[in-house]
Specification:
five-stranded antiparallel beta sheet, 4 domains, Alpha-Beta Plaits, PAS-like_dom_sf, Rev_trsase/Diguanyl_cyclase, plasmid, Beta-Lactamase, EAL_sf
């Protein structure tokens, strides 16, 4: 059995026992080692005063522990427990002096350097956390399962002008909301605040909602549920961004020249109204194309042409009845939707009013202008029950009206759809073209506006048909998407573009458009990786362009795919920005590297103040978000790079 002295020597802690006269009775070597005592400073019979004389740290006052007295002073004047943490060389030593019954003292010490370091790190981390919390631009709060406040930051208080009494832990949420009701900044719909809390709890993940306040502000509240039933929430004032988004949404859904809804908004209305109709009532879609407008526009100038289009818009509106709607698709193309046509006779009567109104002479800027209008009519549900079907059949009828000489209207007839045979032949030719390598890539330069330096090239596909010559992508891309041929065709473009770009200067990138159909292909990521590996092209030199339509369906899966691709190092650009009114929302969901302003805005930049405002707004938005902004010109490449 080990003796008491042997036990003392193998202890990790340093120990010394002093008698009532404060002289050493028992000690181990460890106590001297920890206190870095010189030889003989701690020996049996040595007094506490003698120890302090040779171990100066014991005679100095300490700022840590329960007292600021020195170890020696405490032992001489008091009879209570003393705990101190003292610095001995590079160590932090915990020194505990415990009074014993006979008037003596038990002295114990231990190396707590590691623990002290951890405590210091935690203290530093807490200070940083407090600083971050205090300086957050957004409000942050934490509530327990009973909706009692646990903590909040200064941003939360400022956001709602809360008094200090309502920011203390334990404050019920209902008291805060009652105060805000009195202060005039409560939620307009109070239940909406709790709805998002419930949604987050049910999902087990963050949930966000924009809450409108009675003072007109819009606050985005994001709730993150905690395991104990409580939640952490951030509050962000998004009033300006929401208003900007609504403005851009309106601009993106309307023609800047006439103020009419554009194709995007038209399709949305058609799909909704056709679905609600469900065959119970007949409606008519009238596709309009102005006769001789191009001649007037070319001879009188674009400025007069714009004024003429506005005058046409005014006349068309005057012909409509309640419930009818009108949209401009671009150029001199308009669409009128007669929701309650019921009969062909009513649709024909509207068409005749439109033809007569537009056929009357216009006086623009003192000049007499004579134009006309051709109209194709499709009736729902007979000629289609979807927006695309109705638009297609109305256009087919419009082509017949123009072929017949213009200035008239024509109803769609199934026999008009002779173009189906042409489409079948084009599909067969397209399949043979893919197998027979009839395609070639042209490259359109991308130039830095500040330095005039070419920073990249956009890959543009061209089809060299053995009989028809050069076939425009406008004729075959949509067909390739419908038939699924866009997947192998797109893969060829991607591989060839990477192969070509690998031989270019190292700072020059290549941009490749991804079709929505191609984007949804499960083999897309593998194709990208394989194309980069086979060509030896660095991923950072490849830029993939997508349109908003990629994100319109199953946006969560699309965003996951985008993050996967971006994780490879590939750049992602949003093409045709501004043509869809959800574009701004997608910029918040995914960190795009580039946005390309749609060329429709660029074409009218010099003639339309609205277009100029849109372009500037988008450029400023891109700058603030750190996203490169490209003004997309007409895609007319001048050469092929090999």
């Amino acid at each position: 059995m080990l003796s008491s002295f042997r036990i003392l020597e193998i202890m990790h802690q340093g120990v010394a026992l002093l008698d009532a006269d404060l002289r050493v009775v028992i000690f181990n070597e460890r106590v001297g080692e920890l206190l870095q005592a010189p030889k003989g400073a701690i020996e049996i019979g040595v007094s506490a005063t003698g120890m302090a004389a040779q171990i100066p740290i014991l005679g100095r006052s300490q700022l840590s522990g329960d007292s600021q007295e020195s170890w020696l002073t405490h032992l001489l004047t008091r009879s209570t427990l003393l705990h101190q943490e003292i610095c001995v060389g590079e160590r932090i030593v915990s020194l505990t002096s415990t009074p014993v019954d006979d008037g003596g003292w038990l002295i114990s010490c231990d190396d707590v350097s590691a623990l002290a370091s951890i405590r210091k790190d935690m203290a530093d981390q807490n200070r940083r956390f407090d600083a971050a919390l205090a300086n957050m631009p957004h409000g942050l709060c934490m509530f327990d399962a009973d909706k009692n406040l646990l903590l909040c930051n200064a941003g939360y208080c400022r956001l709602y002008d809360l008094p200090e009494t309502l920011t203390r832990p334990g404050t019920p949420l209902w008291k805060i909301l009652d105060y805000r009701q009195t202060a005039g900044n409560a939620p307009v719909q109070r239940d909406a605040y709790f709805d998002v809390v419930v949604e987050a709890a049910l999902r087990g993940s963050a949930a966000s909602e924009n809450i409108v306040l009675t003072d007109g502000r819009v606050i985005k509240i994001t709730h993150n549920p905690m395991e104990n039933g409580g939640y952490v929430a951030t509050h962000e004032d998004v009033t300006e961004s929401v208003r900007s988004e609504e403005q851009i949404k309106h601009i993106a859904g309307h023609d800047p020249l006439t103020g009419l809804p554009n194709r995007t908004l038209l399709r949305e209305k058609l799909e909704k109204d056709l679905a609600l109709g469900s065959g119970a009532q007949r409606s008519a879609l009238l596709s309009l194309d102005l006769d001789r407008f191009r001649h007037a526009n070319d001879t009188l100038g674009h400025a007069v042409g714009d004024l003429l289009l506005k005058a046409v818009t005014d006349r068309l509106k005057k012909c409509l009845s309640e419930g009818d709607s009108i949209a401009r698709l671009g150029g001199d193309e308009f669409v009128v939707f007669q929701e309650k046509a019921q009969t062909k006779e009513r649709a024909a009567a509207l068409a005749q009013r439109l033809v007569s109104a537009i056929g009357e002479r216009f006086i623009v800027e003192g000049q007499s202008v004579q134009i006309g209008v051709s109209i194709g009519i499709a009736m729902a549900p007979d000629d289609g029950d979807t927006a695309d079907g109705m638009l297609k059949n109305a256009d087919i009828a419009l082509n017949k009206a123009k072929t017949d000489g213009g200035g008239s209207y024509c109803f769609f007839e199934p026999t008009m759809d002779a173009g189906i045979d042409k489409r079948r032949k084009l599909e067969l030719d397209l399949r043979q073209a893919i197998a027979g390598s009839q395609f070639e890539i042209y490259y359109q330069p991308q130039v830095n506006a500040g330095t005039a330096e070419i920073v990249g090239f956009e890959a543009l596909l061209r089809w060299h048909h053995p009989e028809r010559g050069l076939v425009s992508p406008a004729e075959f891309i949509s067909l390739a998407e419908e038939t699924g041929l866009i997947v192998p065709l797109g893969e060829w473009v991607l591989r060839q573009a990477c192969k070509d770009a690998a031989s270019w200067p190292g700072h020059v990138r290549v941009a490749v458009n991804l079709s929505p159909v191609q984007f949804r292909s499960p083999s897309l990521a593998h194709t990208i990786i394989s194309a980069l590996a086979d060509s030896g092209l660095s991923a950072v030199r490849l830029e993939l362009e997508i349109t908003e339509s990629v994100l319109l369906t199953d946006s969560e899966a699309a965003l996951a795919t985008l993050h996967h691709i971006k994780g490879l190092g590939v750049r992602i650009a949003m093409d045709d920005f501004g043509t869809g009114y959800s574009s701004l929302s997608y910029l918040r969901l995914f960190p795009f590297d580039k946005i390309k302003i749609d060329q429709s805005f660029i074409r009218e930049l010099g003639d339309s103040k609205d277009c100029a405002a849109i372009v500037k707004a988008v450029a400023d938005l891109g700058s603030r978000l750190g996203i490169t902004t490209t003004a997309e010109a007409s895609k007319r490449p001048t050469s092929s790079i090999r």
